[in-house]
Amino acid sequence: MDFYVIAVLTLDATVRVSAPLILAALAGLFSERSGVVDISLEGKMLAGAFTAACVAYLANSAWMGLAAAIVVSWSLAMLHGFACITHRGNQVVSGVAINILVAGLSIVLGLVWFHQGGQTPNLPNTARFTEIVLPGAEAVKNVPVLGELYYELIGGHNILVYIAFAAVPVVWWIVYRSRFGLRLRAVGENPKAVDTAGISVAWLRYRALMLNGVLCGMAGAYISTAQNAQFVRDMTAGQGYMALAALIFGKWRPVPVMFACLLFGFLDAVAVRLQGVEVPGIGVVPVQLIESLPYILTVVLLAGFIGKAIAPKAIGEPYTKER
Amino acid sequence: MKKVLAVTGLALLVASQVQAEEFKPAVVYGLGGKFDKSFNESVVNGVARFTKDTGIKVFEFEPTNTPQIEQGLSKMAKRKMNPIIAVGFDEANALEKVAKENPESKFAIIDSVVDQPNVESIVFKEQEGSFLVGALAAMASKSGKVGFVGGMDIGLIRRFECGYEQGAKYINKDITVYQNMTGSTPEAWNNPGKGGELAKSQFDRGADVVFAAAGGTGLGVYQAAADAHKYAIGVDSNQNYLHPGVMLTSMVKSVDVAAYNTFKEVQDGTWKPGVKALGLAENGVSWAYDQYNKDLITADMKAKMEEIQADIVSGKIQVHDYMADNACTY
Known about the structure:
Chain A: The chain crosses the membrane at residues 6-29, 65-85, 92-114, 159-176, 255-272, 292-311. Chain A: It comes from Pokkaliibacter plantistimulans. Chain A is built from 13 helices and 2 strands. Chain A is mostly helical. The longest helix of chain A is centred in the first third of the chain and has 31 residues, at 3-33. Chain A is globular and about 65 Å long. Chain B is of the alpha/beta class. Chain B has 11 helices and 12 strands. In chain B, the strands form 2 sheets. A 6-stranded parallel sheet of chain B has the order 2-1-3-4-5-11, sandwiched between helices. The interface between A and B is medium-sized, with 35 and 35 residues.
């Protein structure tokens, strides 16, 4: 197989792997830009994955599953908000609590409902988001270079992948061009100023968390009903944390965040393909090294080598109106 | 009245204690969970059959993280359970400790060797079963490329891979065998998304049959094969029913029979500690042929499989055990 085809297929895998990371990272972006640390991306994704798999199976509809996943993830985001906006609790503690809660609860409920050891039943293709063949893709499939590109890389993904990438410009517009976005950025930097202007800090942060919940629910539904066809315990496997790393890597800005997610996805796709393959001049690259690259990159960035990642100033601090 | 009650109570207590020392079977499952549709579920089936046949309840413990394994084993031992089966290689360290602390209890471990006077170690010759399914994969492959997806990168899983590769090459010496491991931590047993990606990467490179030995991760591999209209091979339990028409076969480990027999032997008093290695000759491993995959297997393929099986049993074909020298040389 020639190099070009391999490259296209690797990028194709990159797109598939990055999609849930992008959704989750954008979710984190809303929350953290408003000044609320969100370590519970992982938990909300897992809850979304579990709910989507259950509902999609029972209703035999991927869309119903997606809707339910959004509702559940949204509710958890509101719980997070209730704990750390209304009651000014520690945001990290609340996030970790949600992660632990979901990890346990999904297995327990799965056991009780389906008696398959915390897994949900396998979904038929009618209850999944399946690959979309773009118009004309079959016809141009054999056209050299562009045909491959159109058929493999641009086409042949499920609808949630397209939604994930479409969400990037939308989020950019919301954050940088809308009134809500201006206030969102302000509340993460200087909530006092926002408060002085007569805008409710709590309500703004709640709205940010609402968007956060919706996006996390989609990311979860992607994992269980598009990428896979059932829920398996702990199936998010740390992707929530990867998204968080991408958020920092992308310096809390939508487009760089997308590229960070694509980079992580690309490293993953390459890692898969490099296992056991001899690289000329280097020999066999240890898989462990490639697997740990995203984390190494994040640490390097945090150490300030690739440029400073400056967090929103008011992040992690509950807002107190009066002392 | 009070006295009578107390005496009855005492009698009951004594009675239950006497019974306790006789036969109280227990199982501590592996981290994959009881219903992994694979390894642990096979034990569940064996246990269920034992309870059905004898009417004796088997106590079960399902740990959710590594530290719980030791707690579970030692709790079972303290409750005077006898025998106690530890399911999976990752319970070996915990069992070694618990077996030393409870020398009067009888233990068995599946998939690992614990060298203690009160432990029976049941291991399987996975390489022999993997050789068979590897041969079948090579027969079914049209592209001359087959794949393998392992769970956690450990010697046991490498043993599957090595047997598979050897079997595939036995049929077609020019065949390409792609192999991927999901990861190097126990999370690798439960990552179907990654499993699916690994399978897709092998399909991209031309593989048309993939064998997964990866617990819950394997479910993602089979789904990817179903989506891409390729063949997949199941592991541990007979997984042919998961995707009829896609599942070429399954490399079945008779873990259920092993668990059943251990209970039975302890009950009958014929139980012995030591290592018990189960291969093709002992029906410990096999390839699954049933109503779900019979349309995929031609008469020629079936005949060839039976021939290879006989040759392995007779020793005409020597299958290399990866764990013997930590290398896949054959």
